[in-house]
Design brief:
Blueprint (H helix, E strand, L loop, with lengths): L13 H24 L3 H27 L32
InterPro entries: DUF6343
Keywords: Membrane, Transmembrane, Transmembrane helix
């Protein structure tokens, strides 16, 4: 459901976030392996924690991408308030409305 105030051609940044997340996974994995190999345990643990955080983010991004563009939350989440032409306030690109 459109509320009337978002751009018609709005695009989701999920693909960009996925690409950056994969790049972060590679670097965190490389850092974990490199620091563990050189005996720097503290840095290896730090990179390992970062690896887990980035992996969780990538999983969530993929989950959101699979839900699709028309995903609607469950019945416990109220819908957006629909656009009504007579409401007070200002719409982007239009004249002020209301009293």
């Amino acid at each position: 459901m459109r509320s009337g105030n978002e751009p018609v051609t709005a695009r989701s940044p999920l693909r960009l976030r996925l690409g950056l997340g994969m790049w972060g996974l590679l670097w965190a994995l490389a850092g974990t392996v490199a620091f563990a190999w050189t005996g720097r345990t503290g840095w290896a643990i730090a990179c390992g924690v970062l690896l887990l955080v980035v992996a969780t983010d990538v999983v969530m991004i993929v989950r959101h991408m699979r839900q699709g563009a028309r995903y609607q939350p469950g019945p416990d989440v109220p819908p957006y308030e629909p656009y009504r032409p007579g409401r007070t306030g200002r719409r982007r690109g239009g004249p002020p409305t209301g009293p």
